[in-house]
Amino acid sequence: MFTEFDNRRLFDVLFQNPYQAILIIDVSKNSKILDANTKALQLFKYSLIEIKNLTIFDLIKETKDDINNLLLKKDSSFEIKEEKFIDKFGNIIPIKSSFSFISSDDTTLAISLVCDLTLEKEREEVICINEKRYKAIVEDQSELICRFDKDGKLTFVNNAYCKYFDQTYEELIGKYFLDLIPEESKEFVKNSISVINYNNQFNCYDHKVALKNGEVRWMHWSDRGIFDKSRNIVEYQSIGIDITDRKKLETKLIKSTLKYKGILNSLQDGFYRVNDKGNITYISCSALEIIGYGNRQDIIRQPIESFFVDPSEFRKIFHKLKSAGGKIDDQETEIYINNNKKITIRYNAQFVYNEKNEIVGTQGTFKDITEQKKRMKEIIKLYQVVENIQSGILILSPDGTIEYANPMVSKITKLKTSVIGKKLKTFINFDSSINQSIIFNSIDQTGKWFGPAYCLQIDSNYERVPIDIMFSKFIDSSGNLSIIVSFTDVSERYALMKKIKEQSQMYEELHANMLVLVNKMDEFNVSKFEKINKLEKEYSRSMENIGLARSL
């Protein structure tokens, strides 16, 4: 049984919980604030004396009447998912809060647990912006981009890949990519991939693919091995280009023009407390919701280590706390929830002490970051695709200042210094009929612009390299505008086209000369034929005269 001292001590520990702001409100007296813990005072920037002179409505920016009606019910606990509160200086704070009631005689108190959502919203906003940005870059590429594991199962495909094979993302993921290749090409593809190792990380090859409608086309693939720290292949990344037309017109050396286009939810923290034996003595409602339990009694007195995927994790936490002086923050681990499903959590923990300053347990907060981790992995994967793609990728601010550049930009421009912070016009030029204002007007109206340009290789005596360049408009969830630029070096293609033109002109001149020669030979043959006919007639006439003379 708890003594009165124990109960008071438990109340003090819970009330002064550094992870949760707590307000005690007298509903019977116009919802005046009677008490607030340290976290609440820090959140709203008031001293304890100042906040005791306020009502709960002095802290609420909007919907005061709605909350007042809920408070007047007195006997029904309720929760506010998100509301705007204001601090002492008028700053708006996004809040999630819950209200519970305690009544005695003519007094009704409301206990409000208040959670600041500011940090969670900022983190979620950053995740969403980065995810949309890199996904826009990858998904807008005209090339087919995919990843597959060592067994050949697809783990990632972009929109272009899905469209090309006329299948959905869900239909393709987990499918063997060799199933999309005709039987006669499979062995060749296997051999082409098998040569990739840590010392030879790239390989390019052409082969046939069979589309869903039965059409067989040619693709050029650039494969790259993805390696772990032990230099073992864990995955392959492949970028494909349809070269069917080039194969058909291979004798004329014409390549198809490639167009490039520009390319995670937080939960409310749960609170827990365990004794010195590692058994759970308290758990909050939000924590119950996270781990999938509806009844607190199903959890109380359970050993906390039974929830960890690694049962030794709790002992490790205890040792970490000792080494860190009794408190650790932002740790991650995996736990089991009610349906035996694994989730990843981020947690804070600290020691609980008694009046003799002896450790009597641990307590802390945690939240489910499983989805956030998954989204971060996708962002990292998309980032790796962008970093390794064979096109130069830039992200510009609305005034044309470069905010991001992938490694291929330096390779194409041959710049030895970073382009971050520079203007695009310092090394990209257009024909005289095109200027930057025309391009930006087109982006405002249609969201994109594509055309030819020149890259000035400043470190190579300002050599002009022809490029195909694509501008795409990107607006994040906050309404901020960025411009994604994708460009590729087409100098090799231009050189081939020039060679083809020169060869075609040479063939045309040769053909014309041959026609003249043939015509002259025809004229000569006609003349000779007429002379031979004349000689034959004269010969026949002579023979007839000789025969006549003999008869006489």
If you had to describe this structure to a student in words, what would you say it looks like?
It is a single chain. With 552 residues, the chain is α+β, with helices and mostly antiparallel strands. It starts with a helix and ends with a helix. The chain has helices at residues 4-15, 38-44, 48-51, 64-73, 118-139, 159-165, 169-172, 183-194, 244-248, 285-291, 313-323, 370-388, 407-413, 436-446, 491-551; strands spanning 21-26, 32-36, 78-86, 92-104, 107-116, 144-148, 154-157, 202-210, 216-227, 233-242, 270-275, 280-283, 327-336, 342-353, 359-368, 392-396, 402-405, 428-429, 448-457, 463-475, 481-489. 22% of the residues are buried. It folds into five domains: 13-116, PAS domain (Beta-Lactamase), CATH 3.30.450.20; 143-252, 2-Layer Sandwich (Beta-Lactamase), CATH 3.30.450.20; 270-368, PAS domain (Beta-Lactamase); 390-489, 2-Layer Sandwich (Beta-Lactamase), CATH 3.30.450; 500-552.
Features:
single chain; 552 residues; alpha+beta; Beta-Lactamase; six-stranded antiparallel beta sheet; five-stranded antiparallel beta sheet; 15 helices; 36% helix; 30% strand
